[in-house]
Amino acid sequence: MGKQIFNNYEKVTYGRLQEVCSNDNVSVFPKVRLADIFPINNSGISNEEYTFSLKSHFDFTIIDNASSLPIFAIEFDGDLHETPGQKHLDNIKDTLAKKFDLPLLRINARYLEKKYRDLDLLSWCVEVWFSAEAFYKAQENGTVPYDELFDPELIYYISGKDKKFPIFLSYDIRKEIRNLYEQGKIKNSSPNIWIGKNKKGNYYGISWIYLDNRRGVYSVSGMKGKSFPISEIDLLQEIMIFDLYEQLQEVFANKKESNSNQKISQIIDGFEKKYRLVMAAAGG
């Protein structure tokens, strides 16, 4: 009897990738060796990197069907990736991907288990990648002005998706928050956002809403910097707004207590002292 090709999470990852890539003329290949992707001979990489490329693989590599070239890779990082030895190997893989200009998205169980609207985070990242590619090609063709910036929240429709603004994850929740404000149940018409960055390039943020002059709810989260062309800031704020809305619902259902605005201010102060500000938005 042979060995299993996938563990459970890798199996789910493969299925999600097959689904989200189905309309983009690409193929998803599991367990492709780095030496079969990168032109490592006479490339100037170190002996360690060369040997590593011969032995190691990407969990999943997405190949353009027209050119047969790799366009990006996906790595699923389980608990073992937190050990010092595995971190060193991951760093080598990251270095090689960067050297050979291959976008590499590292994910964990969080990217698969929870749905935001009708997307998990892995699907969101891949949809944004393909949407951005289509956007930039449209700019090259003159369909879209060169001075227009790509914003995933402004994508109105994607083939095969039922909803308007399909990759604007908090689209529905923002409308619900606005309704609560108009009903006089909260003080802010939209979430407050503060996101900072540490010296290692990782992102940390807080989102909050004031219920009145004394009480509020908040959500905090973090995200590692990506070697993948998506905005960590956009994704992190969307995740926090989902978490914030869940906190808000629990408070209104009397399942948990709200927080004092003083406590929220203390947490914000802590973030401001610890991280460098990269994005802030005040709720209306």
Automatic annotation (TrEMBL):
Top-level taxon in the UniProt lineage: Bacteria
Name of the featured protein: DUF2726 domain-containing protein
Species of provenance: Oceanobacillus jeddahense
InterPro entries found in the cross-reference section: DUF2726
Domain DUF2726, chain residue ranges per copy: 3-111
One Pfam family here: DUF2726
